[in-house]
Amino acid sequence: MTPLNDFFGFTQTPFSRSIPTDNLFPAHGHQEIQGRLTFALQERLPALITGDVGTGKSTAVRAFAQTLDHNLYPVVYLSNPHLGVTALYREILLALQVEPAFGFMRLLPQLRATLHDLARKGRYVLLIVDEAHLLPPELFDQLRFLLNDEMDSASLITLVLLGQPDLAHKLRFAPYEALHQRIAVRYHLRPFDLEETAGYIKHHMRVAGYQGQLFSDSFLSGVHHHTKGVARKINNVCRNALLLGATEQKQVLDQDDLKRVLLDLEGQIA
Asked: What top-level class would CATH report for the domain 3-12+192-264?
């Protein structure tokens, strides 16, 4: 047992990155992402999901991917935006449990043949590219090539681009216009409002097994004001508040306690 779990009676640590997807807070924006990606997958349409750092877009997309039947929808998740073209094809093939061919010129035909083979079996790949705002132009071109297939009227993959808000702006420039025109599903994930911030905090505490009301209303509204509803910042503040509460054996944390936590975190949640 950790000191936090011991004092508060937690069955698991709240505000953790490792929270099971079944226990994620059902925020409106996350539900929107689930619905839009379901449509994109069914129609095999490219999708663009943007959001500021820490708003939970990657978490929401990963949660969606985990709900899928991977026998029907194999998932390829690419989190390294600095791959070269050869490495891109190799990573996709390896994720599909196919040994990549030797030599760049053989990789694209091999990948397309693999996608066709899967399609004949009724299986269509979900390709998620995270941190896509950092992709170099040549990788955007390669992703567009994967979407184009003269042998099939619909794409053999569903491409999901995840990135910060400037990704949507970047795709409007001429070098990316062909890919930009193909993107049919778009969503920008916004931070939580005050009600969702309070709900998010209470949800994490409840999932962790806490039965009481540790955080006062003034604490909750103060957290929203200082974090602007960004989930990652909320987690940071609340974890440190719990440490304060456990150290001083507090049953309620209020606005004065929040001020002390924020002083300790000064510069970390700006």
From this structure: mainly alpha
* Cβ-proximal residues to 29 (8 Å cutoff; 6+ apart), any chain: 51, 55, 56, 60, 187, 189, 190
Please state which CATH number belongs to domain 28-189. 3.40.50.300
31: helix, strand or coil: helix
Q: Averaged over 110-126, what is the pLDDT?
A: 95
What percent of the chain is predicted at pLDDT more than 70? Answer: 96
pLDDT of res. 33: 98
Long-range contacts of 72-75 (CB under 8 A, 24+ apart): 72/122, 72/123, 72/124, 73/41, 73/123, 73/124, 73/125, 73/126, 73/158, 74/118, 74/123, 74/125, 74/126, 75/125, 75/126, 75/128
